[in-house]
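re: that complex we talked abt at group meeting.

here r the seqs, copy pasted straight from the sheet so there may be weird spacing, ignore it
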Amino acid sequence: MVTRTESVTRRLREAVLGGAYMPGGRLNEMALAEAMQVSRTPVRAALGALFAEGLLDYEPNCGYVVRRLSLDEAVHIYTVRATLEGLAARLAAETGLADAARARFRETLDEMERLVAGDNWGDAEQQRWGDLNIAFHGQIIAASGNGYLANSIQRTRTLPLLTESGVRTFLAERAVVWWDRAAYRRSQDDHLDLGEAILARQGGRAEALMREHVERAGRLIGRKLANRTEAALALS
Amino acid sequence: MVTRTESVTRRLREAVLGGAYMPGGRLNEMALAEAMQVSRTPVRAALGALFAEGLLDYEPNCGYVVRRLSLDEAVHIYTVRATLEGLAARLAAETGLADAARARFRETLDEMERLVAGDNWGDAEQQRWGDLNIAFHGQIIAASGNGYLANSIQRTRTLPLLTESGVRTFLAERAVVWWDRAAYRRSQDDHLDLGEAILARQGGRAEALMREHVERAGRLIGRKLANRTEAALALS
DNA sequence: TTTGCATAAATTGTGTACAAAGAGCGGCGA
DNA sequence: TCGCCGCTCTTTGTACACAATTTATGCAAA
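got the structure back, here u go
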């Protein structure tokens, strides 16, 4: 049996990450309770959990609001994430992958390459590539063998506004993927170098490559976000 | 006005970090509520918050227990911490310290040096050096200008069993500082090199030094912890 | 003695009522 | 008209009662 608190926490997390509420928007306990068909108690527990995860801001006696990330904060988070994923890449390279993991790793890389290099590049291919991208990074993190590191990286990824592949915006109704195809190609080139370094047990090189890889993504998103902010300001 | 939840959270956190409960020990909601003279509601909120901070483990319908860190987990946490503090050192060096911060930084280093090099080395000096050590690291983290990084590092420091200066154990009644004087001298030498690198704006060198510095502390604690585990096993 | 089950006790999960703090609003005076 | 005060209303914080689940206990049978 799963408790209502767990269920509400999961649903609310998905709603916030999915952009159902505007950043800075208040989350009314009573309204959420009615919407979820539970009492305020599990809702309050869920809000507390999401606050601890960094998805919400909280002020005593004032309630919870969806956290609004400034451009600076987003850059800060990406800096930390780049360093942590760099560490994971180094540890993975130094430890080495087991045979099964090695095979899966190669398979993931190959499929991504086929997609990017292929003739078709529609929504389905982008979606698939995004999933494989997450899997690729996940395999490296798993191979690092450091659970605390894995959690720390996960924390940098589950934040409103910034998700695993690309940028979601709360201004639009549905997710907008910001990258053009050239960016995917560049990202894939990074992946190929990274895979080579890790499989060749080159820890230092893997770390440097991963750091640069994630920081590049951060810079890209930073630029897009800066433009978006200007656009949003122009609208308001 | 401060809410009861905040007050209970703070008190409970201090109790857990101070070693008032055995790792693995159950935290009974009713008992805590009576001890703190509040109802179960703020106690549950506090337990949830401390669980999110990583101080407690939780299983639905089974309650909260003080988190028990394995030796492996402690090493993993130190690895992450070393990398993050290394990043902070690099950012601090690259950004550079403002004049006031620069002066305070030098002052902190000088006082630590006077203590370690001085003739007296009692409990008071150790305590003072520990406080300055925290301040030294804190100044670097602040100078990095990355709030998310500061939070991430703080998370690696507030865990039961491992605190800022030395190791607390739940087996003994009061905190035990594990280091001998030679270790303090070695640590201080690291600090001198680090201060030099940061003030000279040598980012890469500062990062490498800080990483090694924190990892050395981690190895030291790891060894002590391993011995302690053997001792504890022998006793039981 | 041990194992299994049924029952009882203890503990956590949830709903709800009430207390308290904050936000919004209207009236009053300068 | 503007600013301030006090009120009301909304929203959050807390206590408590009850439901649901887990854990302990005791008894009977293998």
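couple things i noticed - Residues 203-235 of chain B form the longest helix (33 residues). Residues 3-5, 38-42, 45, 60-62 of chain B lie near DNA strand D (CB under 10 Å from a C1').
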